[in-house]
Amino acid sequence: MAKDPVRVLVIGAAGQIGYALVLMIAMGVMLGADKPIILHMLDIPPAAEALNGVKMELIDAAFPLLKACSGVSIAAMIGGFPRKEGMERKDVMSKNVSIYKSQASALEQYAAANSRKLSSALSAASAACDHIHDWVLGTPEGTGVSMGIYSNGSYNVPPGLLYSFPVTCRNGDWSIVQGLPIDEFSRKKMDATAQELTEEKTLAYSCLS
Ligand SMILES: *[C@@H]1O[C@H](CO)[C@@H](O)[C@H](O)[C@H]1NC(C)=O
Ligand SMILES: *[C@@H]1O[C@H](CO)[C@@H](O)[C@H](O)[C@H]1NC(C)=O
């Protein structure tokens, strides 16, 4: 029996990571080889021509999973501003924040209530694909993965930070693996990372106001 198609939105689809990502999605790497997909691709106006090129390539390749094209279920936000020479970290962050902010409000209007948002400026397309694959389809019994998720205070990571945790996934939900031993070396690194992320969060908020 044919499965229902799922709508996937890729923002920044004409960029290098976005381009690789849409191809992988079309090939079934993200959601499985039997899941039909309706793909929505967005990018900024200067990338319109490149985006059209991506679309033509997808049509030419005639991927069997791609269905003709509301309610987006999975959103991959890849677009960000590349750091150019002479730019301060804060300048780039401020550009990124305004990009993500406008994307997020656009998304709120169109996304299905249950939408999964993957804000992935840094990770490469295949990592993004694997991530959503594990999230949606579940991690194999007895294995886990690392995912950047909201901290609930596990492993003494400040609650509310987006932090990488060991997780298992089942039915589209993740759960943090508890009780792994942490040696002194790792503890120090984890605390330093938490500190950095806290500073980054403060910086991002200051760009918002
Ligand atoms: C901004 O986004 C770019 C590209 O997506 C990313 O490489 C960079 O690390 C981000 N910079 C900051 C400061 O958020
Ligand atoms: C955090 O969530 C995990 C499941 O993801 C749960 O096992 C754990 O008890 C929670 N920890 C705290 C401190 O709430």
Protein described:
This protein has 209 residues and is α/β, with parallel strands linked by helices. The chain has two domains: 1-109, Rossmann fold; 138-208, L-2-Hydroxyisocaproate Dehydrogenase, Chain A, domain 2. The protein contains five helices and seven strands, in the order βαβαβαβαβββα. It has helices spanning 16-26, 48-61, 89-110, 125-137, 184-208; strands spanning 6-11, 37-42, 72-77, 111-119, 145-150, 162-170, 173-176. The protein has a four-stranded parallel β-sheet, with helices on both faces. Strand 3, helix 3 (89-110) and strand 4 form a beta-alpha-beta unit. Helix 1 (16-26) packs across helix 4 and helix 3 (89-110) packs across helix 5. It starts with 5 loop residues before the first strand and ends with a helix. The model has no long low-confidence stretch (mean pLDDT 83). One 2-acetamido-2-deoxy-beta-D-glucopyranose binds next to helix 3.
Shape: globular
The CATH fourth-level homologous superfamily of the largest domain: NAD(P)-binding Rossmann-like Domain
* Strand percentage: 15-25%
Any idea what the radius of gyration is? 18 Å
State the distance separating the first and last CA atoms.
51 Å
User: What is the overall pLDDT average?
Assistant: 83
The CATH architecture of the largest domain can be given as 3-Layer(aba) Sandwich
Helix run count = 5
Q: How many E strands?
A: 7
Major sheet characteristics: 4 strands, parallel
Question: Structural class given helices, strands, pairing?
Answer: alpha/beta
What is the CATH T-level topology of the largest domain? Answer: Rossmann fold
Domain Lactate/malate dehydrogenase C-terminal: 75-203
Organism: Spirodela intermedia
Pfam families: Ldh_1_C (PF02866)
GO biological process, one term: malate metabolic process
